[in-house]
Every structure is written in structure tokens, then in C-alpha cells.
């Protein structure tokens, strides 16, 4: 994992908030620490890297200073922040920031991504402000980056920024990490299509896009497929000539910080003091920001149900409810506080007895040591958000359990549930489940507690915030290296001129061209992809030069090739090499497979045609193709993978194979491949110039079979054995025109 440290340049962190909050008092700059899990995690990660002296430890943090700063103080603040450390402020006027942060970010994205569509506001003006602030950040970041820098953008505030920055600075490495959930497409599509497409395309500007869980990765990839038609290969997407990686990188905590703090003598003393006040009562701890996603009210109602069902626990249990103030100026949050206050009052009033209240309620922010004391003494942590990207409170509680006891009750809607299966996992919408889990936790044998907490602590310790950051940057480094290799293969203008010059100087030339996607654009239906008059004229002109031997090598049937290209003096190869027609000759069969396989697989293929509207079969003599280009993208992607699996199982240990092309699955004889076909052509003569172009996986056989000195070109930017890459099918047409012009001389 240390490979990531070999990169040169700086790490540029971009987030809504800087690690410090800045204000102006009496003309003097004042600073204080910024709150929030994102800032805490990144600060811990950066400090560790700097202490270790690793490469790329030099960094710059770009963000909003936390307050609106009058223009006359901009230079002062910028200068002093640069002197203090590696921070670059982005100044935004107060009204615009409110419209951005309290508007689109927290009235549209926050509720929708947390599955609260009823609270989501859809206002075009808020979207426009979101775009405006992202553009403003882009200007600041673009002005700061230099060659070799790596830009790491964080969270939902800046989902448009990666693409904006890519356009301004195409050569830099860009990573993006989303700290909140990415919703299922059925939720995401509730956004106006312009906004949804803008967000997806914005994120695809990054080289690596990270989420907390595999579920969020899947949701995002589905949205990409639905909105752009772009299919992924194991989380890899080709976007404008770049390979983008989408993956899960579950964030951790600074384990040593929380575990070490819990071990401090004064923290243990504080925990003991609290414990003595509780006498023999079992303590259930609830710690959350004031937010509707946390499900605090539902949690209280579940605790109330527990007390109703289990009077034997009255006076023997207490809920320590710590609510951290959040978004104080927002009416919705004030309403939530009022609801919590009323529930606490009602439950205490209903069940309290002399010397005992079932809930101890604090509405305040506690420091690390005070919070660690609560973690250390609490018998149970009740962490039941209605939806949460990860939830670090659960991990903090586990890290602070130094005595190998304690029980974690955790919502299945939190990303942390995927990493901490030893917790008691509950549905936060079920009072009954939560009430039952409380009883189970209170009565859990100590030995079981030890087993569970040790397993969770080991996981939290191993996958801490430092490992999270290191793995993400390593993935970004790998993408950067791949892009560099890909860039080296791109057929530039000078490369084209070099090929043209070699062509001009040669005396005998062999030219191999795939058909669909290479000579003609891909069409929704194969019969629509016919050669236009201009293409036929070019091929006819090239073929008229006796120095040129041209072969069209395709998966198409021989009838199609004969009809559309048979009048030109060139060679034709059909069905990937099963049939061949030499220049002006007759069609000859090269492969003689046993056709009994067709009867075996045809029922299966017909079943999938029935299941997937818009799909159809193309039966050839030596192969059968299942096309799904006209079908619903998500359904087609799923069924294609399913069918491929079933076909591979069915054809195991036969002479048949399954080829996956561009929105097509084809079953063919293994002996019918383009590699064998081109070698058959090359046996006829000695050529001093060989060129081959194709766009599909089937063309890789051709590239690999040809001599090393051959010029091989793959259409589409993706991993290939070809020597060169071109981005568009039209690029082959342009090259063909240049070669034709030389042949006409």
C-alpha cells in the first residue's frame, strides 16, 4: 500500500470546511477548530502522514473559512492562514453560502440521499446556486494546483466539482469521496433529470470515486447506467478516454486516539465517578447530532416500549441521552428538539420513581475526554440512525471498550453494520426489534460480550482512518499510472503522420479492418449499420492500388458482407473467421463445428429474449448472437451477466465459447477467431506494412496474432494489446482517407 507515497507533488484536500473556523474580531483574525467527523478524520490522517515523513505528505486544504469574511479582510486572512499552515480559504458571501449550504445541500441532497423524499425541496434557483458555488471552488482550486498534485474532493457539497476541474486541469489526478449514502436509483431519479445527470457526470470527472459500502457503489453504478448508458466492468467505467474506478472505501476512526484517551487515568476516574452515581443501574448510551436522519425520537419510543414490557428493569436501567446541537437556525431542527424534549419529559414523567429517572438528557457538545468517559462506563451503546453513510459513534464506542465488555446495538441502515456484524443489528423503524435488542443486550452473558467486542475492536483497529486514506490514495495512484500508460498509446497527430509515411514507403501492404464500430458506427440494430457511399468509395479506391491487400474481418454473416461489400476487390471474413472470401473469389468455409450445440442453447437464448423486451437473436451458421442494445439498460446489464454465467456453465469443456461484445453476447466455435483468419491471409505473401483496426474484445485475437511490427489500433480507450488507441470510430475514417489519398497518387 505504500506505493501511493511514491507520487510527487502535493495532496490537495477540498471540502466545505477547513480544519479551522475563521472569524474577524476588532480587525484581528481569530481561529478555532472545526467540528465534524469529516474534518476529524482527515486531520488525523494528514497528521500521521506528516509525522511519518512520507511522500505526498505536503498538502494544502482548500475550503470555506466557516464564516463570511468582509472583502477588506480577504488578503489578511489568506496571508495569515498560509503562514499558519497549509490552508487556502474560499471566500463566499454570507447570503450565497446560506443558499448553497442551507439550500440545495441540506434541503435537497441531504434529505433525498438519506431517503427522506418528503422533506426534499426542488427549486431551480437552489440548483443554480449549487452550480455557482462549485464553479467558484473550481476557480480557486485550479489556481492552486500544479503539475504532480493530487486533488481529493470530499462530500456532497461538491459533486459537480470533479468534472469542472477535469475540464480546467485535464492532466491532474482527481479523487472524490462521498461521506453520506448514495441512494438507490428509484430515489435518486426523483431529482429532475438535468440535476441527476449533472451530478453523475460531475462525479465521473474523478479518476476514483469512493463510497462507504458496496451498496452505495451499486446504487451509483446503476444511476450511471440509467442516465448515461455507460456500463461498468467490475466497477470500472470508460469516460471520455479515461478509466474511472468506483469502489467502496469504508472510513475508519483514529483508533489509537479514542482507545488511548479511554485508557487515560483521568478519563477512567471520570467514568468511575459517573458509574458510582448510577449505583447498580445498567447504562445505555445514545450519542447523536440533532438530525432527523438519526432517528432519536424512534429510539426513545422503543425505549419506552421496553419499559412498558419489562417493569422488572425499572430503577435498574438508565438511558444517557446526549444530543449535540446542529443547524440551530433551521426550523425543522428546532421542531425535532421540541419533540425530543416532549418525549423525554413524557417518559420520565410516566416511569420515574423516587431516586430514579429512566432518562438522563444532555443537550450539549462534549469534548473528547468527557465523551470517552461515557463510552467507557456505558454498558450498552444504542446507535440506531434511520439512514447513515457510516456512523463513527459505533466505532468510537468499540474503540473505547478497554475492559472487553459492552454491547453495541446498531442500525442495519448504517454503513457500519456491514463492518460490525457482531453488533446486535436492528431495523430502526421497528420499536419491537429495538426493545427486544435492549433486553438481549442487558441480559447478554459476559463471555458473549467479550467475544463480540473483541472481534469488533480488532476490525475497528485494523481498518482505521489511516488505512482508509492510504488505500484510497493507492487506488488513485494506480488509476494515474494506468492513465499514463493509456496516454502513451493514444494515436497522436504525429503518430498518424508516422504511420502514413511508413505506408507510403512500403511496397506490399496488408490492411485488416473490423466492420461494426470500426468502419461504421454502432447501430441499435445490426441491419441498420450499412456502409455509406463515402466509405465504399474509399475502400474501392484503396483496393484499386495493387500494393494494397484489404481484408474486412467481421462477426457479420457472409450474406451481409457479400451484399454490401462484395462488389469491391477485397477479402471478406465472416463470423469471426468461420467463412472467408479471397479477393474476387468464392466463399470458403474454414470452421466445421458440430451444430448440435445450437439445439442445446437455443431454448435458453429464446427464454432470455422473452424475459428482456427489445432483445433479439441473430443466428449465424457458426454462431448465435443475443443483442440487447435496444433494451432497458439496467435490466439488460443484469440479464447479460446472468446469461453469460449460465452459458459458460452449459458450454464447459466444449469447443464453444461465449464472447461479450458491445451490448451483445455471442456463442461461437473456439476455432472461429480473427487471429487464425489474419494468419491465413498473411501466409499468402510477404508484406512490409501491416495495419489492423478493431473495437471489440474479438479483435484482441487479431492484434495478438499479428507480428510485433504490425500497426494495431483499438477504437475506444480501454486496456488492449493493440499498439495504439483512438477515441472515436471517426478517427479510423480519417486515417482511411489519408491512406486513400496516398494510394491515388
Describe this protein with a few key phrases:
745 residues, alpha/beta, Rossmann fold, 4 domains, eight-stranded mixed sheet, 25 helices, disordered N terminus
Quick overview:
The chain folds into four domains: 10-248, Glycogen Phosphorylase B (Rossmann fold); 255-462, 3-Layer(aba) Sandwich (Rossmann fold), CATH 3.40.50.2000; 490-591 and 672-743, 3-Layer(aba) Sandwich (Rossmann fold); 596-669, 2-Layer Sandwich (Alpha-Beta Plaits). The protein contains 25 helices and 28 strands.
Please tell me about this protein's structure.
- This protein folds into four domains: 10-248, 3-Layer(aba) Sandwich (Rossmann fold); 255-462, Glycogen Phosphorylase B (Rossmann fold, 3-Layer(aba) Sandwich); 490-591 and 672-743, HAD superfamily/HAD-like (Rossmann fold); 596-669, Trehalose-6-phosphate phosphatase related protein, domain 2 (Alpha-Beta Plaits, 2-Layer Sandwich), CATH 3.30.70.
- It is α/β, with parallel strands linked by helices and 745 residues long.
- Mean pLDDT is 90; it is low at 1-7.
- It has 25 helices and 28 strands.
Amino acid at each position: 500500500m505504500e506505493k501511493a507515497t511514491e507520487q510527487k507533488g502535493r495532496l490537495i484536500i477540498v471540502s466545505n470546511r477547513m480544519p479551522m473556523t475563521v472569524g474577524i474580531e476588532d480587525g484581528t483574525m481569530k481561529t478555532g477548530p472545526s467540528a465534524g467527523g469529516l474534518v476529524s478524520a482527515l486531520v488525523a490522517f494528514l497528521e500521521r502522514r506528516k509525522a511519518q515523513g512520507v511522500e505526498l505528505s505536503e498538502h494544502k486544504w482548500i475550503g470555506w473559512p466557516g464564516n463570511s469574511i468582509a472583502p477588506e479582510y480577504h488578503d489578511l486572512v489568506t496571508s495569515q492562514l498560509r503562514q499558519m499552515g497549509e490552508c487556502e480559504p474560499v471566500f463566499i458571501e454570507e447570503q450565497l453560502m446560506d443558499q448553497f449550504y442551507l439550500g440545495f445541500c441540506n434541503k435537497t441532497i441531504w434529505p433525498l440521499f438519506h431517503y427522506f423524499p418528503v422533506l426534499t425541496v426542488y427549486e431551480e434557483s437552489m440548483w443554480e446556486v449549487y452550480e455557482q458555488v462549485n464553479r467558484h471552488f473550481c476557480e480557486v482550486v485550479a489556481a492552486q494546483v500544479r503539475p504532480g498534485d493530487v486533488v481529493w474532493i470530499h462530500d456532497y457539497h461538491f459533486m459537480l466539482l470533479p468534472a469542472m476541474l477535469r475540464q480546467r486541469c485535464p492532466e491532474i489526478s482527481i479523487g472524490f469521496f462521498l461521506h453520506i449514502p448514495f441512494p438507490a436509483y428509484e430515489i435518486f431519479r426523483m431529482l429532475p433529470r438535468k440535476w441527476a445527470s449533472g451530478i453523475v457526470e460531475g462525479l465521473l470527472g474523478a479518476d476514483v470515486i469512493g463510497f462507504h459500502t458496496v451498496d452505495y457503489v451499486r446504487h451509483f453504478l446503476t444511476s450511471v447506467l440509467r442516465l448515461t448508458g455507460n456500463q461498468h466492468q467490475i466497477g470500472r467505467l470508460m469516460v471520455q478516454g479515461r478509466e474511472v474506478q468506483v469502489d467502496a472505501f469504508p472510513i475508519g476512526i483514529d483508533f489509537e486516539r479514542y482507545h488511548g484517551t479511554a485508557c487515560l487515568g483521568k478519563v477512567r476516574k471520570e467514568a468511575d465517578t459517573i458509574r458510582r452515581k448510577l449505583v447498580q443501574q445498567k447504562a445505555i448510551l445514545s450519542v447523536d447530532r440533532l438530525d432527523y436522519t438519526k432517528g432519536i425520537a424512534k429510539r426513545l419510543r422503543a425505549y419506552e416500549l421496553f419499559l412498558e414490557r419489562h417493569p422488572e428493569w425499572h430503577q435498574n436501567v438508565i438511558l444517557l441521552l446526549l444530543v449535540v446541537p446542529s443547524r440551530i437556525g433551521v426550523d425543522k431542527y428546532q421542531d425535532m428538539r421540541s419533540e425530543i424534549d416532549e418525549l423525554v419529559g413524557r417518559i420520565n414523567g410516566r416511569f420515574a420513581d423516587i431516586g430514579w429517572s429512566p432518562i438522563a438528557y444532555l443537550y450539549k457538545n462534549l469534548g473528547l475526554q468527557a465523551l470517552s468517559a461515557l463510552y467507557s462506563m456505558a454498558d450498552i451503546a444504542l446507535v440506531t440512525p434511520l439512514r447513515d453513510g457510516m456512523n463513527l459513534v459505533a466505532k468510537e464506542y468499540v474503540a473505547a471498550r478497554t475492559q472487553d465488555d459492552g454491547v453495541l446495538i446498531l442500525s442495519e441502515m448504517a454503513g457500519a453494520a456491514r463492518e460490525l456484524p457482531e453488533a446486535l443489528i436492528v431495523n430502526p423503524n421497528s420499536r419491537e426489534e429495538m426493545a427486544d435488542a435492549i433486553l438481549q443486550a442487558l441480559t447478554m452473558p459476559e463471555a458473549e460480550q467479550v467475544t463480540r467486542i473483541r472481534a469488533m475492536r480488532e476490525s475497528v483497529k485494523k481498518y482505521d482512518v489511516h488505512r482508509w486514506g492510504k488505500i484510497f490514495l493507492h487506488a488513485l495512484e494506480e488509476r494515474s499510472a494506468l492513465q499514463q500508460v493509456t496516454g502513451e498509446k493514444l494515436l497522436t497527430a504525429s503518430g498518424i503522420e508516422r504511420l502514413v509515411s511508413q505506408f507510403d514507403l512500403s511496397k506490399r501492404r496488408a490492411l485488416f479492418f473490423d466492420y461494426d464500430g470500426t468502419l461504421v458506427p454502432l447501430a441499435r440494430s445490426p441491419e441498420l449499420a450499412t456502409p455509406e457511399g463515402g466509405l465504399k468509395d474509399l475502400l474501392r479506391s484503396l483496393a484499386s492500388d495493387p500494393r494494397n491487400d484489404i481484408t474486412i474481418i467481421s462477426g457479420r454473416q457472409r450474406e451481409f458482407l457479400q451484399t454490401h461489400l462484395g462488389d469491391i476487390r477485397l477479402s471478406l471474413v465472416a463470423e469471426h473467421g468461420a467463412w472467408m472470401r479471397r479477393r474476387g473469389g468464392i466463399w470458403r468455409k474454414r470452421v466445421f463445428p458440430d451444430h448440435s450445440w445450437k439445439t442445446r442453447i437455443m431454448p435458453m437464448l429464446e427464454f432470455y429474449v422473452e424475459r428482456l423486451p427489445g432483445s433479439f437473436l441473430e443466428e449465424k451458421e457458426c454462431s448465435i448472437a443475443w443483442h440487447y442494445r435496444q433494451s432497458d439498460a439496467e435490466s439488460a446489464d443484469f440479464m447479460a451477466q446472468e446469461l453469460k454465467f449460465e452459458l459458460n456453465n452449459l458450454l464447459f469443456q466444449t469447443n464453444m465459447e461465449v464472447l461479450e461484445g458491445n451490448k451483445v453476447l455471442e456463442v461461437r466455435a473456439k476455432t472461429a477467431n480473427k487471429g487464425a483468419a489474419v494468419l491465413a491471409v498473411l501466409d499468402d505473401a510477404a508484406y512490409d506494412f501491416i495495419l489492423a483496426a478493431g473495437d471489440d474484445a474479438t479483435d484482441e485475437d487479431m492484434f495478438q496474432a499479428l507480428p510485433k511490427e504490425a500497426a494495431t489500433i483499438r477504437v475506444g480507450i480501454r486496456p488492449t494489446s493493440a499498439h495504439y488507441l483512438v477515441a472515436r470510430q471517426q478517427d479510423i475514417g480519417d486515417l482511411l482517407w489519408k491512406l486513400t489519398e496516398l494510394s491515388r497518387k
